[in-house]
Design brief:
By secondary structure, this protein is an alpha/beta fold. It is about 40% helix and about 15% strand. The strands form two sheets. The protein has a seven-stranded parallel sheet with strand order 3-2-1-4-5-6-7, sandwiched between helices. Strands 10-9-8-11-12-13 form a six-stranded parallel sheet, with helices on both faces.
């Protein structure tokens, strides 16, 4: 069954994990023979989380022509998801294009699609859920999740699925788990981190501990830096790499107080994330809440970098303690430091965990596996309802 599929994201740039995942899915489905379209949120102004100097991809989302080049060979449109006028334009466009599937990513995209399609049915209406946060207590998003109009919620981990069922009252058969994917041609054990190390003056003898994520509270950078201070006392050659967009100056006073000084490097947004991960001796995920399953953890496992993670969200579904990585409690810099020092001090254990981790993600997280599973969900929905076109008014 060849499907005409619309993927809709509320992201206004292509640098965030959710946007990357949507494009991976869209390209994978196109490779499987489907007609796939993408909609992103037209950026009216630079988002606050963007790097000080926006990447070419983030700037492109304010120009539909330039943006089309970024997503080629996919087809797509830009709409302002906060505009009633654009919602009406989107409604008319969706009806004229007669999509078989609408798949929204994040709550604003779901709200936009749900309201825009009121009064007519979509053969398969699906949304992605990537967080363990509870749904809003009221409003359109909660209405959409609980509405029979929404056929399926795709949760990125079992932890997200459990939260939706236990905390938000969704029926178990409405929520399916499909792990986020990665491209094995981009993330693999053959990737070298030498160029990234050289860029920051880090030689082969320097032990590099990294954290990946936007500089926002839930990513746990404060805990990471407290752990880094302990690691720095024990390993004089250790350096710390913070990869991700944001404002490093907010941590200046903390780093000065901890005495880390030049030992912390803020690398900003990286388009070469596979090489950046390969440059690390250990990846630390210090996230404190909200994570469905941290993408950087999956990608580090794919390139063979050992992982220490907090037991946040669904991370322990991939990182099994002392089998595919090390797991510590949320909010404990002492435990983060202890686990990281354990791997820095035992290369054999670090290698053993990295080998098992790579096998784990190759088994569960290849993008081809993800696309096949999601394609099956689309087809199941369409066959269940016996509909293959938008209908009603």
């Amino acid at each position: 069954m060849t499907l005409k599929i619309l993927q809709v994201a509320s992201h206004s740039d292509l640098t965030r994990g959710g946007a990357v995942q949507m494009l991976l899915l869209a390209r994978g489905l196109k490779e499987r023979g489907h007609d796939v379209w993408c909609v992103f949120n037209r950026a009216e102004k630079a988002a606050s989380h963007c790097p000080t100097t926006p990447s070419p991809t983030s700037a492109a989302l304010r120009s539909e022509t330039a943006w089309a080049e970024q997503i080629a060979p996919l087809s797509g449109r830009l709409f302002n998801l906060g505009s009633l006028r654009d919602m009406l334009r989107f409604r008319a466009w969706v009806r004229s294009e007669r999509f078989d599937v609408i798949h929204s990513h994040r709550e604003p995209a779901l709200r936009f699609c749900f309201l825009a399609t009121l009064g007519f049915s979509v053969p398969a209406f699906v949304t992605q859920r990537g967080t363990v946060y509870r749904l809003p207590r009221w409003g359109v998003v909660r209405w959409a999740f609980r509405s029979p109009k929404l056929d399926r919620v795709i949760a990125v981990s079992e932890a997200v699925r459990r939260s939706l069922i236990a905390n938000d009252g969704l029926a178990p058969d409405k929520v399916s788990v499909v792990y986020g994917g990665y491209d094995p041609q981009q993330f693999h054990r053959g990737i070298a981190g030498d160029r990234v190390r050289s860029e920051f003056g880090l030689d082969a003898q320097t032990q590099v501990v990294g954290i990946v994520g936007a500089l926002i509270a839930k990513k746990g950078h404060a805990d990471f830096f407290e752990a880094a201070a302990r690691i720095a006392e024990a390993v004089l050659t250790a350096r710390f790499l913070a990869i991700g967009p944001g404002k490093p100056e907010r941590f200046a006073a903390m780093l000065e107080q901890l005495g880390l000084g030049e030992r912390v490097i803020f690398a900003g947004y990286r388009s070469d994330i596979a090489e950046a991960l390969a440059a690390l001796d250990v990846l630390v995920c210090a996230s404190t809440k909200g994570e469905g399953l941290t993408g950087a953890v999956r990608e580090a496992m794919a390139v063979g970098t050992p992982v220490v993670t907090t037991d946040v969200g669904g991370n322990t579904e991939l990182v099994e303690h002392e089998r595919t990585g090390l797991v510590v409690p949320v909010g404990s810099p002492v435990d983060l430091a202890r686990a990281t020092l354990r791997l820095l001090g035992d290369s054999d254990e670090a290698a053993r965990l990295a080998d098992a981790a790579e096998l784990c993600v190759r088994s569960l997280c290849l993008n081809s596996t993800r696309c096949e599973r999601i394609e099956q969900i689309y087809v199941q929905i369409i066959e269940k309802w016996g509909r293959h076109t938008i209908s009603g008014e």
